[in-house]
Amino acid sequence: MGRDKGKGMRERAQAVLDGNWTGRSTIPAKGLYPHQWSWDAAFIAIGRSWYEQRRAQQELETLLAAQWANGMVPHIVFNPAVPAGDYFPGPDFWQSDRCANAPRGIATSGITQPPLHARAALEVYQHASDRDEALGFLGRVYPKLAAQHAYLARWRDVGGDGLAAIVHPWESGLDNSPLWDSELDCLVIPPGALPRYHRADLQHANAADRPTDAAYDRYVYLAITYRDARYDDATLLANSPFLVESVLFNAIYLWSVHALAEIAVLLGTDPGPHREQAARLHDAMLSRFWDPGCGHLFGYDLRGQRGVPKDSISSMTPLLDPDLPAEVVAAICADLGSPHFTAPAAGAGQHFLFPSYDLEAPDFDRRRYWRGPVWINTDWLVWRGLRQHGAAPLAKQVADDMVALVERSGFREYFDPFGGEGYGGKDFSWTAALLLDVLSVTS
Length: 443
Ligand code: 9WN
Hints:
Helix content: 40-55%
Number of strands: 9
Distance between the termini: 8 Å
Largest sheet: 3 strands, antiparallel
Bound molecules: (2R)-2-(alpha-D-glucopyranosyloxy)-3-hydroxypropanoic acid
Strand content: under 5%
Order of helices and strands: HEHHEHHHHHHHEHHEEEEHHHEEH
Strand order of the largest sheet: 3-6-7
């Protein structure tokens, strides 16, 4: 890409982030997502850190100010200035104020999201123009990030091997992925268990792009059962009908544990415990997720005691593990280059890398939320992993496609892998933030 073109896109990306800044944090998109989301905040901080250190730090510190006493970082931090009906489920639904662990005076959801924050904090430091200020920031957030990881180790390691389990599709970040279909299909919603509710999302996005009403009923039902148990961790582990070890969640967790070890070194603290945790997670990911027979990594359903043998972008994210064996790296690259993730017959400009789900699976859907479209955040995670393992040509192809998608359709929430049409939210923050990162690293 030419220097001027890159500069223009960088300026537009910054304008998106600045337009979504609330004074303390950044909303993902106007209308559709009017509060602060957890893993969005990490992606946004990484992008912002290339030009605005203070706001990047503040993004993460605002989120971490809402951390629960048990260490959980909630998946949404609600902005009290936003009218109640603007997002569902809002603070009146989650009722975090009824829970002893929740922070006082800040309304949040009662579940978490992929723990990318230690990685984001490290990158904010690495890109900082004022390193002293950034070191102070690391000193403030380190205990909170360590507590976040301790929470996952204490309360979510249901399998006992170090992997963290999620209790809701919203915790996966890939909410409506076909990965969760069988688990959700098994849910029995008792008559009368669901309140009447209004889907605010459909006022801002095309219903054909969003999850169905049947999926929403299941999301809401799960969240209600946790809320009614006041999000008590022990009850959750014993009873939650949805309990899954997600590949993406754990790959991000491992990447962040490595980052926390690096932060500990910068702060002159012992990185040993983090390195031990990383080694354990690495072993567990391989023994639980890697299927050498078929050459894929699959998640695991702890309630059903079975693997989740569906090929999605989640299976590619172990590339984030710096110690991933060469054989596994090769298998992932082969899968990415196969007709499952790269349309064979399509010419340039007709197909964009990487779909979020297997192009050849019967439940692939090119436009519906997480069931096939390209998302810039999952592309970015795979791009980082490919670069780390020296797969430069494939890394370049995906980086070029991220830029091409945004050039074609703007900073949309997600994109059609065939043709590149943009869907979901407009001026979407993590699309802008991660484009800034790609442009900063590659040009
Ligand atoms: C529910 C904000 C969030 C992302 C998720 C994405 C979507 C929310 C929703 O938007 O989820 O948490 O209302 O659909 O799936 O990954 O963090 O961008």
